Amino acid sequence: MLEKMEKFDQEKVIAEFEAITKDAEKVQRETLKKILEENGSAEYLQNLGLNGRTDPESFKSCVPLVTHKELETYIQRIADGDSSPILTGKPITTISLSSGTTQGKPKFVPFNDELMETTMQIYRTSFAFRNREFPIGNGKALQLIYSSKQFKTKGGLAAGTATTNVYRNFQYKQTMKAIQSQSCSPDEVIFGPDFHQSLYCHLLCGLIFRNEVQLVSSTFAHSIIHAFRTFEQVWEELCTDIRDGVLSSRITVPTIRTAMSRLLKPDPHLAELIYNKCSGLSNWYRLIPELFPNAKYIYGIMTGSMEPYLKKLRHYAGELPLLSADYGSSEGWIGANVNPQLPPKLATYAVLPHIGYFEFIPLRVDIEDQDHNKMDRSFLCMEPKPVGLTEVKIGEEYEIILTNGAGGRLNPASQKEKAREHIRSNHVPIGCLYRYRLGDVVKVMGFHNSSPELKFVCRSNLLLTINIDKNTEKDLQLAVEEAGKLLGEEKLEVVDFTSHVDTSTEPGHYVIFWEISGEANEEVLKECCNCLDKSFVDAGYVSSRKVNTIGPLELRVVWRGTFQKILDHYLGLGAAVSQFKTPRCVGQANNNVLQILCGNVAKSYSSTAF
Ligand code: AMP
């Protein structure tokens, strides 16, 4: 049984990682060679005149940098059922749907077993390092994970979000078992057709297995926050279900009901215990360790657009460590968190040099602005000249370029591994995107051996710009964080936020939408609005505001539940909660979301800061 999972050997996994990062440049060359050899027959590469060359220099001179847009027609042909070698030597059988929350609509991306293999490698690698620092016992994980709708493309290929493709894969379960992170929820809950019902049952399963739960996790931290905010609403109902051993009538999906009935037995003692614990909490502080006394940590992606949720997560977590999960995308993986002891705000991701070929476009650094601790990432030098993985410099920011994905073990040690590697590389398409601009900005924080450790900075596209102003997702995040402090003094918080550039007025202005946890008084909100306006320190913005070529910033407070409506809207488009990231800027093109926001405004304020 070649597929059978070997027992997890933590030290071996760490040793393998140390070995592949020792000479990352060599590994990168070999990886590129492997990708190009495997896909030499692909139409895309044939047309570029590589003629069998596999060295980085030829690759860079023949193959252009692309974005998803340039590949759309190729990917569409694959989705429509053209099985000729288009992007890969071997056919693609599955399509992933990216979350699409940044651009407004989900993108199709090829998925293959190769990506599955690298996913498992990343999971194993970060687990090995994590478990060395924060060992977990044998038990279960409260995994707040969900599947998206699965469908077939016109050409009959299976399509779903990348996370769903992963969760459905046999290897996923095997790996989770090996790394002691099996979900306490049955498959019927994870793959349930209704996210709200799945969430309720995840919470119920967590409570039923509360003593066994070793960790609470999700893909992105947003799902954890969302789950425990929901817990605040439904906890009494959960207690009733446990006391009586009868599942709430809110669960209507028959498969979920059947699966849950196998787990749910009347347990008045447990119900009372949970009831008392919840009643005794002050504003739900330390909710997670109270519910799950043996949990060792909380795990999920906590960097980038997840940072605004950290404060709330810390509140629920009390003293439990918050460990950020790895860095990747539907298009491919990039790095693993091998320094789990770092707090989420400082989390870095060490690139695995054999899972893809990586290039980095240096972003111009505006020296003058450095005093204000602000880089001008405006962008890419006129002629983007990417550098290689080992040529990046500590402290600099780059846009990341991906050629995916090799993976597999470079030096299979045992006969068994050699056999598996042989089978894998003969049957599995390798690679599919070449010199692909992922759209992420990263900062190099250091090196693990010779492979860089990256900090995620932000998406590279500008969020807010009217004329000479340039503000990124990160800038918006910082402004909201600053203004949110004023709410904090009132014991209130920003539940979620987004922005919009309103050019229907003359001059145009920024609009920030906030959902707040309670009623804030007028004066505080006016101050918040001014503070937001002042917190965009980009020189272009400040000077435009001073001369009124950009109008006063507008803060629009939306009704509670508005961001839930946005989430529901994306789920309807086929997105999965597991990959959901609140869009931080909503343009005119994203009309449906804009309508949800504008239709739910409770109050609005105009800045008087300038
Ligand atoms: P998706 O489109 O759903 O595949 O999401 C992929 C994107 O999520 C990446 O391109 C990043 O922008 C973001 N992302 C993934 N992992 C991380 C991470 N560890 N930290 C911050 N952002 C991340």
UniProtKB/TrEMBL annotation:
GO cellular component: cytoplasm
Keyword Ligase: yes
Keywords for the protein's UniProt record, in alphabetical order: Ligase
Keyword presence, Cytoplasm: no
Domain GH3 middle: from-to ranges: 349-407, 433-459
Sequence ranges assigned to domain GH3 C-terminal in this UniProt record: 474-588
Stated family: Belongs to the IAA-amido conjugating enzyme family.
Identification of the protein by name: Putative indole-3-acetic acid-amido synthetase GH3.5
Organism, as annotated: Morella rubra
